[in-house]
Amino acid sequence: MWPVMIFLVLVVAFYWGAFYLTVAAWLKALIHLLGGNFIRAAIWPSLGYGMLLWWQGTEVIPHPWDLDAWLRGSAVFVGVGALATFVRWRKKQQAMQAIPTVPVWPMPAEATGNTAPIIEVEYKRLPN
Question: Residues of the chain whose pLDDT is less than 50?
Answer without folding.
Answer: none
